[in-house]
Amino acid sequence: MSVPTLYPEDERLTRGERVVFNLYIITALVVFVLMMLFGLVMRMAQGTWLSLPPTLFYQIMTAHGAGTVGTMGLASSAVMWFFLRKYVRLNLWAFLTNYVLFTLGALAILAAVFIGGYAGAWTFLYPLPVHSMGEWTVHAAVLFMLGYIAIGVGFLLFYLDAMAGVIRVYGNLGRALGLQWLFGGEIDPVHPKTVVASTMVIITNSIGTLAGAVVLVMSIINAYFPELALNALLAKNLIYLFGHTFINATIYMGVIAVYELLPRYSGRPYGISRPFLWAWAASTVMVLSVYPHHLLMDYVMPHWMLVMGQIVSYASGLPVFVVTAYGALTNVYRCGIRWRMPAKLMMLSMYGWAAGIVPAIIDATIRINEVMHNTQWVPGHFHFYLLLGVLPMILALMFHVIAGRAQSLADATTDKLSFPIYAVGGLAFAVALLAAGHVSAPRRYAVHLPQWVPYDQASSIAAILVIAAMLLFTGRIIAGLLRAPAHVDPAHPAG
Ligand code: HEM
Ligand SMILES: [Cu+2]
């Protein structure tokens, strides 16, 4: 198996593709910066450095949660699209429609929050959206949920198009996942990891998104016809089946960048293996069955589901992570890799993913969850893997693409500065949240007790570092994307 060139022919974008890809990436970066500023505002308000009416805090919290999760989905689906289109036929209109529906949905969400005053959090947990205590109208809550539906329909369309493409080439989803090789037989050495990962996401996130659609439609009907009450426990189950799966899918789409790009930077092939196929097959089942770890406080849940939530939590993140991290580390071990931005970001992502899982596993233990549930430990965990794990995967592809469009592959001076600032700031930010959780500071409180304030202030400073670095990244990437492609591969000038 040979090592591909840095910029293989089949990855070139046509003009139309480039425009849509740029739309995704530029939108995602701009929204991330804005959402991070929202985050900073919340942190500074909790830290008493900024005075913010609590109602506005919860509006910002709602926009931040919905905006970051949605945008993470958008950006990581661009990673999946970028690589999957080499192996199966993807229709550009489906990719573009997803973008358009996302934009419409995002506008609806922003209007619902900042004009309508909706502040029931991104999880729209029933019956919160319809119990606003006069803070927002039913229409605002419904507009928020309609925004989600638009985004969900866009994603479903994108996944259905990808599913059709995968089935056309591989016959069925099972063969694309490589299930035929689980118990023996010679694995096709060129079966793309990208296809395995994409297929897993197509299956799981379609199911998750459909669960979300069902509970959204139920909630909207209930908003206008309150006599049709919902079963709150069922609604919560559907919401977390959707929410857990959607945010996890961002890792599984983002990691495709590592599978594809790492061997090019290390100069070593990064082959497929039976443990790899097992890990992805197992995760397909586990991602969907692990969500009860969000309901460990709900004593009315069937006991076996909570036990399953705990046990599967221990196992769920691990297989794919282990094969990926092991694969990545052995791939770069003594390979003489050149530590350019994409390579650095990919290594950071392996660390952020690994370290970010640990607090989640701890919190998914029922006895520990009784204490840690709804403390800042939880945002500590997910900011860890999102800021230091998933976002670096996405940024790695972006820096890779812009280096290909520039005439030189060398990192700009700003990159040498922005990378460490981002890594240190992100780590400090996440650790401060975890530490606050450790002393039982609750999450989702606009106002904090004096003994929690030092954590809020420390993480505000860390957040400023993250945002500064993100601004530098964003400027570099947008400038790079708007440049016409150079169509050269400086690493392989002849090829
Ligand atoms: C500089 C960057 C960021 C800062 C300063 C920040 C800050 C915050 C703060 C203060 C909260 C509320 C914590 C609480 O419950 O007390 C929060 C919640 C949250 N953040 Fe961030 N954040 C940042 C980046 C991100 C990113 C990149 C993502 C994901 C892609 C993200 C996703 C979320 C989510 C999902 C919530 C939960 C909202 C809720 O509880 O309803 N954040 N963030
Ligand atoms: Cu979860």
TrEMBL record:
Keyword Transmembrane (UniProt): yes
Domain Cytochrome oxidase subunit I profile: 9-495
UniProt GO BP: aerobic respiration; electron transport coupled proton transport; respiratory electron transport chain
GO MF annotations, alphabetized: cytochrome-c oxidase activity; heme binding
Residues passing through the membrane, by range: 21-44, 56-84, 96-118, 138-160, 201-225, 237-259, 271-291, 311-333, 345-362, 382-401, 421-441, 461-482
Species the sequence originates in: Nitrococcus mobilis Nb-231
InterPro entries named in the record: Cyt_c_oxase-like_su1_dom, Cyt_c_oxase-like_su1_sf, Cyt_C_Oxase_1
A GO term from the CC aspect: membrane
Domain of life: Bacteria
Name the record gives this protein: Cytochrome c oxidase, subunit I
Keyword tags: Electron transport, Membrane, Respiratory chain, Transmembrane, Transmembrane helix, Transport
